């Protein structure tokens, strides 16, 4: 609430408005932006000394995005002096979405869906450390997701315009780690570490939107570090050097999003235009959803891996005349059949990841060779 706090918060808020991830996530319907908005509202209410309202916002956010669960740990520490008001707000927020859902599908069905979803997320399709345990692979994917896509820092395949904002962010982060010693600094650091650990271990790191919860805490730390190392005048200059190039880069990527057809949509349109489309069968992973929306009459089936694909093909009574497989089927091209590349569809990784580079293969099962 003092002058220093307002200055730090202002820079963090300003810097939060310019990375491209926030702009691109806001253009797509989903639970991530809504959940993050609830988390930020909870933090704002807590900073204003209103634990009940903070709990209400966080409880609603859990219904929008269950991955906010890790925030309960630092939040519980911060409201320990007013536990009743905080718990009442949290309970009310949870009941606002839990009661209607239970009434709609039934309490038993809702519980079984929750268990099924949690089990699938951590064992089958979620992309967590359980299903993709490689430390080196996860570290590289996390670094790109959080830094390049989330905070808009420079990466070898990014625009050089990001170099200046990256230097400013690095300066603020180093200053925060070296000189940040206040209680508020410890809260920001502890909360950021909890959120980072959760995302690194439990999330699919191929999806940049999963980095959204990291961004506010990282920018608060950077803003605090810049304020510590530069003072008021230096703060203003560094803010301009960081914000203006980032704004240009974000505008460029948003324009690319507006003018470029998503590779998954290009792939679906290509398949829909092939001759005798009713004799074609397509296997894909999440790209199958796009077929369901745009071409529901096509025979599009989900296969997580080549093993799933071969199992379904060999179990079919009648083979289609042509089998297409998208590159997001794990292991494609591979297995016992014959593969040939039909087409490839590309766009910016920073806008359309993880489906920014999709290949379409024609597959001939081994039994038909």
Strand order of the largest sheet: 2-1-3-5-4
**Helix-and-strand structural type:** alpha/beta
The number of distinct helices, counting runs of at least 4 residues, comes to 15
Shape: globular
Percent range for β-strand residues: 5-15%
CA(first)-CA(last) distance:
73 Å
Unreliable residue runs: none
The biggest beta sheet reads: 5 strands, mixed
Report what the structure shows.
Helix content is 62%, strand content 8%. By secondary structure, it is of the alpha/beta class. A five-stranded mixed sheet has the order 2-1-3-5-4. α6 crosses α7. The N and C termini lie far apart (73 Å). The model has no long low-confidence stretch (mean pLDDT 90).
SSE inventory with pairings:
Layout: H1 3-16, H2 20-26, H3 31-47, H4 51-64, H5 72-78, H6 83-105, H7 107-123, H8 135-151, H9 163-179, H10 183-202, H11 214-259, H12 263-272, E1 280-284, H13 288-294, E2 299-302, H14 306-314, E3 322-326, E4 338-346, H15 349-352, E5 357-364
Parallel strand pairs: 1-2, 1-3
Antiparallel strand pairs: 3-5, 4-5
């Amino acid at each position: 609430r003092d002058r220093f706090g307002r200055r730090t918060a202002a820079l963090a808020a300003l810097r939060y408005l310019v990375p491209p991830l926030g702009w691109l996530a806001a253009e797509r319907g989903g639970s991530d932006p809504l959940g993050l908005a609830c988390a930020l509202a909870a933090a704002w209410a807590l900073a204003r000394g209103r634990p009940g309202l903070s709990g209400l916002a966080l409880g609603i956010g859990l219904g929008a995005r269950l991955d906010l669960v890790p925030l309960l740990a630092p939040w519980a520490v911060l409201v320990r002096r007013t536990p009743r008001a905080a718990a009442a707000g949290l309970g009310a927020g949870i009941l606002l979405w839990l009661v209607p859902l239970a009434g709609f599908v039934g309490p038993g069905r809702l519980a079984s869906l929750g268990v099924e979803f949690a089990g699938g997320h951590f064992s089958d399709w979620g992309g967590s450390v359980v299903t993709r345990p490689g430390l080196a692979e996860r570290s590289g994917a996390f670094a790109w997701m959080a830094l390049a896509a989330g905070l808009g820092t420079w990466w070898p395949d990014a625009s050089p315009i990001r170099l200046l904002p990256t230097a400013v962010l690095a300066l603020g982060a180093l200053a925060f780690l070296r000189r940040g010693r206040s209680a508020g600094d410890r809260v920001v650091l502890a909360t950021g570490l909890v959120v980072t650990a959760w995302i690194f271990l439990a999330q699919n790191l191929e999806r940049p939107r999963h980095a959204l919860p990291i961004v506010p805490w990282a920018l608060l730390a950077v803003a605090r570090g810049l304020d510590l190392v530069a003072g008021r005048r230096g703060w203003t200059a560094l803010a301009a050097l960081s914000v203006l190039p980032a704004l240009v880069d974000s505008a460029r990527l948003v324009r690319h999003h507006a003018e470029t057809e998503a590779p998954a949509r290009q792939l679906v349109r290509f398949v829909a235009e092939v001759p005798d489309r009713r004799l074609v069968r397509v296997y894909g992973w999440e790209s199958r959803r796009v077929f369901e929306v745009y071409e529901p009459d096509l025979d599009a089936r989900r296969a997580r891996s080549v093993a799933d694909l071969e199992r379904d093909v060999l179990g079919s009574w009648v083979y289609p005349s042509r089998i297409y497989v998208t590159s997001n089927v794990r292991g494609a091209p591979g297995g016992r059949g014959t593969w040939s590349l039909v087409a490839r569809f590309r766009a910016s990784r920073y806008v359309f990841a993880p489906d920014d580079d999709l290949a379409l293969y024609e597959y001939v099962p081994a039994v038909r060779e």
